[in-house]
Amino acid sequence: MSQSTKGSGTSEARSRLLSTATRIFYAEGIHSVGVDRIIAEAQVTRATLYRHFKGKEDLVLAYLDLADREMRAHAEAAQAGEESAADKIRAVCRTIAAGIRSPGFRGCAFLNAAAEYPDRDHPVHRAVLAHREWFLETVTGLLARTGNIPAEPAGRHLVMLRDGAMASGCLSDAKLVSETFLEGVEGILRVRSA
């Protein structure tokens, strides 16, 4: 069980724990899931869990780190091959829209975690804020290359559009929410290019 996965330096048991926790935390929430369930579904012992994670909070932080790394990779991949900054923004936002339309979509993992950990000093909340700061900096940097007016307000606007789309996407018609989100992004880009 503790054998390392080829070339990754991560044990199979740790991967199963993280994969199981990710699936359950995202689908059902963090506080509603106990470590006993994660241990049972990952088919590991309690000792194995604590060998890889100090406790549930450490597992939650690993879940958010994984989600952050995946979102960064999706954003980078979406921008590859796109020439203009506006097209890079569109590509990133199409990736977000595709996620909203995906089966099992339950909103933004980070917004969901922030709702469960409202204390800004809590490590989970700080991880959420760090992810959001990265996303804001990424889109603001791209938007700065699309026009001559300050990009910060447009970056904050895009983040708010994304937040609204992520919340609405699991409450109503995901296709309509995605289309509305992408129309809003086009509106921001039109203002930037005017």
Structure, explained:
- With 194 residues, this protein is mostly helical.
- The protein has 2 domains: 1-53, Orthogonal Bundle (Arc Repressor Mutant, subunit A), CATH 1.10.10.60; 58-193, Tetracycline Repressor, domain 2 (Orthogonal Bundle), CATH 1.10.357.10.
- Helix content is 72%, strand content 0%.
- It contains 9 helices and no strands.
- It has helices spanning 12-28, 35-42, 46-52, 56-79, 85-100, 109-116, 123-144, 152-168, 174-193.
- Helix 1 crosses helix 4 (56-79), helix 5 (85-100) packs antiparallel against helix 9 and helix 8 packs antiparallel against helix 9.
- It is elongated and about 60 Å long.
- Mean pLDDT is 93; it is low at 1-9.
- This is TetR/AcrR family transcriptional regulator.
- Pfam families: TetR_C_13 (PF16925), TetR_N (PF00440).
Would you kindly provide a brief summary of this structure?
Helices cover 72% and strands 0% of the residues. With 194 residues, it is mainly α.
How many helices? The count is 9
Fraction of residues in H or I helices: over 70%
**Anisotropy-based shape:** elongated
Please state the CA-atom Rg, rounded to the nearest Å. Answer: 19 Å
InterPro entries: Homeodomain-like_sf (IPR009057), HTH_TetR (IPR001647), Tet_transcr_reg_TetR-rel_C_sf (IPR036271), TetR_C (IPR011075)
DNA-binding region: 34-53
Domain HTH tetR-type: 11-71
Organism: Streptomyces kunmingensis
